[in-house]
Amino acid sequence: MNDFSQAFSLSLDLIFSLDARLAEIVLLSLRVSLSAVLIATLIGLPLGAALATLRFPGRRTVNAFLSSLMGLPPVVVGLVVYLLLSRSGPMGSLGLLFTPTAMIIAQSLLITPIIASLARQVSEDLWGEYRDQLTSLGCEPLRAVPTILWDGRYRLTTAVLAGFGRATAEVGAVMIVGGNIDHVTRVMTTTIALETSKGNLSLALALGMILITLSLTINVATFMIRDQVKGESL
Amino acid sequence: MTLPGSILPLKLIDLTYAVDGQKLVQNLTLEFTQGPKTLILGPNGAGKSLTLRMAHGLLKPTSGQVQWQQRHPQRHQAMVFQRPVMLRRSAAANIDYALGLKGLGKAEAAELRNEVLAKTGLSGIATRPARVLSIGEQQRLAIARAWALRPQVLFLDEPTASLDPKATRAIEDLIETIHAAGTKIIMSTHDMGQAKRLADEIIFLNQGVLSERTAASDFFTSPHSAEGRAFLEGELLL
Ligand SMILES: Nc1ncnc2c1ncn2[C@@H]1O[C@H](COP(=O)(O)OP(=O)(O)OP(=O)(O)O)[C@@H](O)[C@H]1O
Ligand SMILES: [Mg+2]
To answer: Is the interface score ipTM higher than 0.85?
Structure first.
């Protein structure tokens, strides 16, 4: 118990003294996850909206497939990206394995289906409301995609936040493709795993508190957006 | 009958709409010509909305045809729905959006938009988000948006069903104005008083079937069909 309280006060010291090592890890985490969110958003939002407005054979299958990808185990994504990027793999010559870029690729793959699926749900609601009117105005389903994205902008933010939350919290994928190399690919989750097993609880605890704060912030923001959308019919 | 450049007359030929084998609109044959304000009257569930949606091209009939006189009739018609559908932007931007889809440039669109906003009495609320407007204002905006497209034919599906008498009056006045400016009005209602105020001719539907088509002056004094008569009497009893 004494150990724990000591680790706890040490971890607070680390946070409030803006410890350089801690900061490096947090910043790399944010860089990797924000990059992945950016990529996944650019692909996922238009994809989700298009799946809501376009009618084509096999649409249900595509939607079901996309939804099932939402629950993809991060370690499996990590494994697949590892195989692609490893020296003997198809993209091995790029030399990306064990770099932050590899981690960005893995997290993008992991959260694009999440953002796309959630965006599709939001877009389907909006399209249900708009379809007759937009069709009447001569708006083709594909042309409706930017309209849906703009008019659903507040609600779609929650899809992006969900993707960000998932990216920052996952360990498996970045562990495998990043390799958890000190000063290179060590992010919050992988550091927590490593330092805990080494018994270095203060750093692990400090990172854990930051991670929880981040996750709570995301959830509160999501809640507030939902509330706002309901109240003002945005 | 056909004016040069006109998409009218509109012919509905043996139109049927069925769901799970149940015919909700049955063998409807009708012609709509330039001129009179046509009111489609009938009780709830008569098939008024389905008929308008098929005529406007929003719903594919199970069988039968919708015939217009031009190759791109869609560009020359517009529709106003029972519940106004407002995009999540300002009142003015709602109209601009519709004009943009038609390919109008910004300046031209702004001019046209300001004109219809003025004509519909909405200039003062042009910059407000459309979805915070009252339902009556939203419906006027929906009509302004449709009117801005300069349609030859305007479909209206019970446009005043959720409005109070004052707002209803404003919408009816607008419809008269749009008609006077040369747009063919095809509108549904189940409100007898409204039909009396607006209609030049009545199309009476009941359970998906055409009961009669009669000049408004005749319909309200001597309807031809038993269903029309019953509807009129039911209304008088209320
Ligand atoms: N997609 C559908 N599936 C099954 N039934 C439908 C469908 N669309 C409409 N109906 C039914 O068809 C009938 C006619 O509908 P419609 O909306 O055209 O009536 P309406 O004359 O416009 O009535 P109201 O005055 O209530 O608007 C109704 O009984 C309705 O329940
Ligand atoms: Mg109806």
So the answer is: yes
